[in-house]
Amino acid sequence: MKIDAVTIFPEYFAPLKLSLLGKASESGIVDFHIHDLRHFASNNHHSVDDTPYGGGAGMVMLPQIWGLALDPIMVDDTDLIILTPAGKRFDQAMAAKFSTARHLIFACGRYEGIDDRVRQYYSSELFVGRNIRVHEVSIGDYVLSGGEVASLVMIEAITRLLPGVLGNPESLNEESHNHDGYLEYPNFTKPSIWRNIAVPEILLSGNHAEITKWRNEQAQRRAEKNL
Ligand code: 6GU
Fold first, then answer.
1. 10 lines ligand 1 (CB under 6 A)
2. What is this structure's pTM?
3. Looking at ligand 1, which atom is closest to the CA of residue 141?
4. Per-residue pLDDT of the chain (227 residues; tens, 9 = 90+)
């Protein structure tokens, strides 16, 4: 899978070199390219935004600059993801869908957003013919200053589903058996007693049917508490 991210803060993407993502990148499972939007800014101040038509607070990112940044990477069969708090909520099902894509582009806007014509242009007939799909995505109901952290969240959730990324692929199986990717039961490891708190007896019993039943009950109780 190829992943491009376009941002005015490329340094935000340093964590892609770490841990599982770093290994996935070294082994060629994912191919990350981070692009500095400011390279495409042409005026003296290298500005990437301007005041909104119609007035109001904040700045809107300039469509020309996004066009220059996106055109060269907009190859056939691409999912363009525009990060915005107004987008469709990211969840495990969406992560699973994107994990089957060939090429993802993350367009990181500041939170006031990117001129809407960028979305319109790449969603247009011309690009539909070239197999380009545009998605506006949010990672939750709160406001971040930009799409960079949201992109990292999505990239981690998506790439860990790629074959060969997880050390133990069994954990993916376990997750999907547990409510679409949530491990909702409490976990314990050694020692069996810590600070006078014992691990639930059942987990030491070796009775796998009873353990599964207990875990399902615990997951159910947790889910109800969170409602
Ligand atoms: Cl994708 N962007 C911003 N700026 N804020 C967010 C978000 C995205 N998702 C939740 N809050």
1. no
2. 0.93
3. 10
4. 999 999 999 999 999 999 999 999 999 999 999 999 999 998 889 999 999 999 999 999 999 999 999 999 999 999 999 999 999 999 999 999 999 999 999 999 987 899 999 999 999 988 878 899 999 999 999 999 999 999 999 999 999 999 999 877 777 777 765 555 467 899 999 999 999 999 999 999 999 999 999 999 999 999 898 87
Mutate which of 7, 9, 84, 137 for ligand 1 pocket (most atoms within 8 A of beta carbon): 84
d(CA 65, CA 76): 21
Measured CA angle at 169 (ends 151, 220), to 5 deg? 80
82 lines ligand 1 (CB under 6 A): no
**Residue to substitute in 138, 141, 153 for testing ligand 1 pocket (most ligand atoms within 8 angstroms of CB):** 138
CA of 150 to the centre of ligand 1 (A): 6
Kindly give the interhelix angle for 148-159 and 19-26, rounded to the nearest 10 degrees. 70
